[in-house]
Every structure is written in structure tokens, then in C-alpha cells.
Amino acid sequence: MSTNNYTPCSAQQSEDLKFFEERLKDSLSTIAPPARRWKVVFLLIVTWVGYCLWSWWHVFEYGKDNIVTSILQDPLLVLSLLVLIGLLLAGAHHRSRAPSIVAGRVRQVLKDYNMSIDDVGRLILLPSKPPSTNGR
User: Fold this and answer.
1) Kind plus residue range of the DSSP H or E element containing 123
2) CB 96 within 8 A of CB 38
3) What is the Cα Rg of the chain in Å?
4) The most confident of 13-22, 45-54, 98-107, 126-135, by mean pLDDT
5) I need a labelling partner for 38 at 20 to 30 A (CA). Which of 8, 30, 77, 87 fits?
């Protein structure tokens, strides 16, 4: 009697797992370059907004101006905020995290089959859980 919790798999099952792993790697690697571009765009826009806010902050006179009217008088700040809001409404914050979202959802599904994946898409075979005994 073996103390190993692993069950041997056939050659066909092994090939299927290898094919699934390769397909998963391909899918995640295809999603990664656009996600990197979205991260760069998002970082540039956030930096632009930060710079515009910093420059507005040094011009703002406390007590004389209303904050809202002062912001609306700075066209670069208004434009940068509108672009940032547009990116958020377009879902750039989700597109930049697409590979990790997909990997997380695949991990949830594979958990039922005692498998997981790493961030690149390589399969991780987990030890099978022993059947629970409730004392019956």
C-alpha cells in the first residue's frame, strides 16, 4: 500500500495537461503586452495630474479664491483630470491588471481539480486531499 496521495495519470492525461498548460501560457502572454501599455499610459496620466495639481497648489491663494473656481481656471489641470476620469470610465485600471485577473479566475476553477497556476501560467499540481471522515 502506497502512502503517496498522487494517482498515476495516463499518457493521454499527461499530454492533455501539457497542452492545457501551453494554451494557458499563450493566453496570458498575449494579454501581458497590452496590459503593460495600459500601465504606462495610466502612470503617465497620473504623473501629469500630479504635476498639474502641484503647480495649481503653488498658485492657489488661500482665502481669496474658491477652490472649485480656481481649479476650473487652470485649463491643464481640468484637461488632465478629464483624461484621467475618461481612462477610469474606459476601464484602464482593469485592463492594466488583466493578466492577474485572468490568472486569479483560473486559480479559482482549478482549485476544484487540486491544481493551481503561477503568474506565468505554469500548472501546479497540488496533493489530493484525503477524504474527510466525520466519525460515521
Assistant:
1) strand 123-125
2) yes
3) 25
4) 45-54
5) 77
User: What is the reported pLDDT for 121?
Assistant: 85
Task: Please give the C-alpha separations between residue 122 and each of 26, 28, 117, in angstroms, as whole numbers.
Answer: 10, 10, 5
Which DSSP string corresponds to 18-86? HHHHHHHHHHHHHHHHHHHHHHHHHHHHHHHHHHHHHHHHHH--TTTS-HHHHHHT-HHHHHHHHHHHH
Rounded Cα distance, 43 and 37, in Å: 10
For residues 25-38, average pLDDT = 90
d(CA 44, CA 67): 25
Quote the cell numbers at residue 49.
495630474
**What distance lies between CA 27 and its chain's CA centroid?**
14
* Average pLDDT over all residues of the chain: 84
What confidence category does residue 36 fall into, taking pLDDT thresholds of 50, 70 and 90? very high
